[in-house]
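Dear all,

This email documents one entry for the complex benchmark we are building for the journal club exercise. For each entry we list the sequence lines for every component of the assembly. Then comes the predicted three-dimensional structure of the complex as a token string, followed by one or two observations. Please use this as the template for your own entries, and keep the labels exactly as they appear.
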Amino acid sequence: MPKRRPKLHCLVELPSKWVDSAQLEQALSASGGPHGGSFYSVTFRFPKNCKVMVDAGVRLLALANQLDFSTRRVALEFDEGEAGTMGYLNRMGFFDHLAGQVIVRPYRPPFSGAKIYGGSNKDLVEIARISPDNRDQDLPTRLSEAVASALGTRGDVKTLKDAIWTVFAELIDNIFAHSATVLDGYAAMQLYRNGKSLQVVVSDSGQGIMNTLRPTIQSQFPALADLSDTNLLVEVFRQGISRHGPDRGCGLKGSAAKAMKYNADLEVRLPESRVVLVPANGIYKANTAYCFGRQTLLWGTHIGFRFHLDS
Amino acid sequence: MNENKATIRLRELMGGPYGWGRDQGREVFQQLLKKVEASPGKSVIEVSMKDVERTDISFASETVVEIAKRYRGNKGFYLANVIDEDLLENWEAAAARKGQPLMVWDGKKGRVIGVQPSQGTASAFEYAIGRVSVTASEVANALDLQITNASNKLKQLWEQGFLLRRQETAESGGVEFRYYAVK
């Protein structure tokens, strides 16, 4: 029997609708996973009416740069050009951070929307680079000020601003401390007024929380050693668990506690799994955690909080 | 113990109104340590939060909470001029994580964040923080306890970092411990 030739090209086709992180994951899964060993080139196709949301956009950016870093030829094809979702991504600063080798069709935007209009829209904060070599001290403040500016009429805006600041500060610091990668991390925020929600995303391409935590769990927290990744992740955000011992781990726990005040959903994408934590009675619990195992490989830890802004 | 008190303005060590992350926290800790060691006779350190607008939990954990833990039993640290409850929430979380009580004073109104005194020692603690200093016999009289019981409670509060103590000569000529609120 003739040997089946390995597929060398991976096509990720995004759907013609709003694309959040869940939709993106479906598209990645259907493609076979662009990090797959045999692929030497990867194309992401954005059809007409495809509208990428901030969580998916930041994750795509991280993934495209990871693929480029691992010497794959990467192309992004936007059927609508700048008139479509490419325009939004440009406005968010996506192309400012996209690796230079990545091919963009029909063309790379000649001007950066983020650089021209940066800071002028109250409802978004353009994608910001998180690099341990170039620590931007003002980043959490800029992100939280933007939230305050966007939601200036709410009575609890000060508390919400402080909560967002803490969430960003802790998550970004976590990247500096743990991700151990040469690839940059990213953070962004978008307010969806019609959807009455605010999304905060922080993404890195490092080792991933579990990969750094697992090797020390037996010695530091033997009672938790048998937990599944999902349950262990719940404990990271609920109790605060750190590879550095019981004195540490308060950052992720604290950021989750702040987010919980606003009944925020928390999504954590790990290299091969994805967990969505929905608060129940004021805490994140394992029995309200939705785990999606066997996801396609994506390096790093990608965290998103969705704050519900009903009032 | 007022004559034994030093004040450190945290904002002066931070380089800005915001404190975030473990790295910045560790830098500020070193400066805090220098300031504390430069005042060897001071057993109470007021950490003024004036002009500190925000700090995250990691920063709080690496700075004042860490130094309070290091000097537990010998020196007491408290926060003053805290601008709001949201800021304090992060300090509370950091102190709780390290098992360290931390007093917060707003004028004459004081409260402890982080670890709370146990049920058995709570009344002795409340009595002590309402005064400059107390002895076991004073607490025993006020709370209708045996002196040994009051003494044990105060010792426990000292060991856990809620109170400071100093050995003094009692009226009887023997020695006794006088316990001081961190303020």
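Observations: The domain at 119-311 of chain A is CATH 3.30.565.10 (Heat Shock Protein 90). The longest strand of chain A covers residues 283-292.
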